Amino acid sequence: MKASQKQSTPPGTLKEKRSSRTLNSIRHMIHPKKPKTDNLNTDPPDNIPDVPAPNSADPETPASACACHPQHLISLRTHFPMHIPESLFVQESYDKLVPLGFHKSNAIPCVSLCRDELTKPLLNAIDDAWENEPDDTPTFAMHSLAGMVFLGKTGLTAATHHAPIVDGVSRYVFYVFPHIGINTDGNVGKVKRHGIEKESTACGALIAFQQELESGYLSLELDTDDIEQSVLKQRMLKKIKFGSPVPSIAELTQVAYQVCLEDLKRLITSVIHGERADYAVFTGVQINSGGRLNFIWPGECYAVIDGKRHELSDWSEHTPAN
Predict the structure, then answer these.
(1) Does a cis peptide bond (omega within 30 degrees of 0) precede residue 203?
(2) How many CB atoms lie within 10 A of CB 78?
């Protein structure tokens, strides 16, 4: 395909159709408006000067944004200084790809998230961004525990048979994200789930691995009744220095991200190749707040067009102010 063909922007892109009210509501979370009442105190406590107070007086501010507690935001900024509301991240990932020739009618999104139901909002956002028709679910599922990329060559080859071929080129967009919970008190790895009185863990698979490490007894045999967790432990252990302290759940989540990225790249090299296939990769960590606004910590993001890599990792406009 000629470069000029790829640079054209198709009519009716997501950016053109996007509801400005919805997008502005999300951005108010990052840059809140001034309160509409004079007596409303939205200043954060003195001991947390870097945390912006949610603007509960603004009717356009999402209720989920107002529900973010100061301790939650402190923990979020400590462990994930760069964080973007997940729906905004997905919308902007789409917009970054349009000038490179990708759009909803000529590409297939391939998604690997944890099996946890907490990850569903991110999957829904990806479906909404790439759907061709109402109620369309265009994503190819690669999911596994902790978002690991365990579908293998056979699984990814299936995606190549489902990808649209437009002007002789097939296009793939990969979204791969492990996840982690942060509760309202700022406790990492904890999250409140709907209908359950006690808090639970996220990601449960990574915390189960952490608990095995802490016990001093780690089984690395392939359990055919627990294949995904078995392979997860084998892959993760290779990234942990022998004799070092057991990593925190935040550290293990970063290890999971590295493993996911490596496995994805290896599979792409093995299965998707040749000058007639373009692809994009969006990776990072999904941060769950237990029914509140979820965030994305963006990792490596790029596109490969005609064999040339284009970096898409600049999210600097979302860097929180100090």
Answers:
(1) yes
(2) 12
Q: What is the pLDDT of residues 179-216, one digit of tens each?
A: 999 998 899 999 988 888 888 899 999 999 999 999 98
Structural tokens at position 161: 């048979």
Instruction: Please state, in angstroms and rounded to a whole number, the distance separating the CA atoms of residues 302 and 282.
Output: 7
User: Cβ(272)–Cβ(156) under 8 Å?
Assistant: yes
> What band does 58 get if pLDDT is binned at 50, 70 and 90?
very low
Most confident of 28-37, 180-189, 271-280, 312-321: 180-189
Length of the chain: 322
- From the list 73, 88, 72, 76, the residue with the least C-alpha distance to 25 is 88
Closest residue by Cα to residue 282 from 75, 165, 113: 113
Beta bridge partners of 85: 295
Q: CA-CA distance, 322 to 320, in Å (whole number)?
A: 6
CB 186 within 8 A of CB 74: yes
156, 159, 274, 301 from 304: Cα distances, Å: 17, 17, 11, 10
Say which DSSP state 247 is in: P
For 91, the token pair is 């919308």
**Residue-by-residue DSSP string for 133-198:** STT---PEE---GGG----HHHHHHHHHHHS-EETTEEEEEEEEE-EEEB-TT--BTEE--TT-SS
Task: Please name the CATH architecture into which domain 81-318 falls.
Answer: 3-Layer(aba) Sandwich (3.40)
Query: How many other β-carbons are positioned within 10 Å of the β-carbon of residue 132?
Result: 10
Taking alpha carbons only, the member of 131, 136, 165 closest to residue 17 is 131
**What are the Cα distances from residue 110, in Å, to 82, 130, 143, 159?**
24, 11, 9, 8
Which has the closest alpha carbon to 147: 110, 182, 179, 181? 179
Strands 169-177 and 277-288, bridge-based pairing: parallel
Q: How far is CA 107 from the centre of its chain?
A: 19
> Three-state SS for 297?
strand
